[in-house]
Amino acid sequence: MNERIRSVFVLGLGKVGSLVATLLHITGFDVTGADHKSMVGFPFPTKNLDLSAPDALAGGMKGFDAVVSCLPYRFNVAAASGAHGLGIHYFDLTEDVATTKAILQMSATAQAVMSPQCGLAPGFIAIVGASLVERFSRIRSIKLRVGALPQNPTGLLGYAFNWSPEGVVNEYLNDCEVIEDGVRKWVSPLEWFETLVIQGVQLEAFLTSGGLGTMCETYHGRVENLDYKTIRYPGHAKLMNFFFHELLMRKDRSKAGEILVHAKPPVTEDVVYIHASVEGWKGDTLLRDEFVRAYYPVEIAGRVWRAISWTTAASACAVVEMVSNGSLLGKGFLKQEQIPLQAFLKTMNGRLYAGEPHGGKSERPKG
Predict the structure, then answer these.
(1) How much of the chain, in percent, has pLDDT values that exceed 70?
(2) Rounded Cα–Cα distance for residues 210 and 94 (Å)
(3) Which of 222, 228, 193 is nearest to 209 (CA)?
(4) 62 shares its domain with 197
(5) Which residues of 275-303 are buried (b: 16+ CB within 10 A; e: fewer)?
(6) What CATH number did the domain enclosing 185 receive?
(7) Do 176 and 42 fall within a single domain?
(8) Are residues 156 and 290 both part of a single domain?
(9) Where does the pLDDT of residue 324 fall: very low under 50, low under 70, confident under 90, or very high at 90 and above?
(10) Domain boundary residue among 300, 327, 362?
(11) Each residue of 308-322: b (16+ CB within 10 Å) or e?
(12) By residue range, what is the domain housing residue 294?
């Protein structure tokens, strides 16, 4: 099939999925959205679809060039399998390691691109990390940190669930892949504490699962130390360890998520912190290069979107653009660290990360 993407089917029209569909529509793609409930008010057509039924998923994808899944991770293997069977491009936002491994296996026979982990972390943070690595002749460490937080925290947790509680609970409880002293290994989450200061704000960071995507595989043998940590306000990790382990809430992940969201509902004024650093040698000199940013809500299509929503959605949409225009591979498994940062930032959606307006058109440019 022609690798250029014209029509896109977006699965899930929640906090992030609705923005993914909106951004792709503004960019010029022919977008159709799908959700398990009827949705109105979008500038593109939508379908009411049983997203938990694999046959319904696969049937709904027919006729499209690409699928972007913004569903909870547990639905993504079925969504990817449907796209694989139809030979169409597949993208998702998952941080779940087992889901990614399943998609990697099916990508060996894919006739189109299969690109999970296209969000913020994993996703954009890997693109940034890889861009820093390119500056060094030899690498000692790659340290990637991301946090989505309320700008004005309250209470001891200093948190608000602007992201999927299911995803956050998984990140806090699933083992984390790292490279330590050249050895690729799995370690426990909510460990390896450190202090960060970004724009004068004191923060903490600790290991969580899934944020590295495929980077351990890519950089094993090339780097001494590689890890991903989540950024929070000081004291958060200690309380989450108490909640999950001393109170044994790890035994009921669904209930744990319900309790946390009830206690700490979403807020409108959030901030996304990114702190990526690489240490190594440039010639004979040991140096450290950093990429440190704080991203805030922005207005898109007449509406203000939370920082966590647009940073996640814009990353996925930029990757779709790059596959469509032929600047990335046309089939097989696409690792996020294979995506050039500067080319990413020049896409209509990547420009949001550079602090520029979206700049999309209502119609796809000719040619």
Answers:
(1) 97
(2) 9
(3) 228
(4) no
(5) bbbbbbeeeeeeeebebeebbebbebeee
(6) 3.30.360.10
(7) no
(8) yes
(9) very high
(10) 300
(11) bbbbbbbbbbbbbbb
(12) 124-300
Question: What's the number of domains the chain is made of?
Answer: 2
Statement to judge: residues 23 and 154 lie in one domain: no
Q: Which amino acid is at 44?
A: F
| Sign, CA torsion 262/266/270/272 | positive
Give per-residue pLDDT as tens, 233-257.
999 999 999 999 999 999 999 999 9
Distance CA 19, CA 308 (A): 11
Residue with tokens 């993208």: 91
Q: Is the pLDDT of residue 359 over 80?
A: no
Report helix, strand or coil for 347: coil
Q: Do 131 and 244 share a domain, yes or no?
A: yes
Q: What is the mean pLDDT of residues 246-269?
A: 96
**Which whole number is the average pLDDT over 301-309?**
95
Q: Would you state the structure tokens that stand for residue 2, as one six-digit string?
A: 């022609």
Distance between CA atoms of 328 and 360, rounded to whole angstroms? 20
pLDDT band at residue 2 using 50, 70 and 90 as cut-offs:
very low
In a domain? residue 2: no
Is the residue at 168 inside a domain?
A: yes
Peptide bond preceding 122 in cis form (omega within 30 of 0): yes
Per-residue pLDDT reduced to its tens digit, 31-74: 999 998 888 889 999 999 888 888 888 899 999 999 999 998 88
Count of alpha carbons within 13 Å of 329, Cβ hemisphere only? 17
What is the CB neighbour count within 10 angstroms for residue 343? Answer: 16
pLDDT of residue 51: 80
Residue where the block lists tokens 């724009």? 199
Q: What is the pLDDT of residue 294?
A: 97
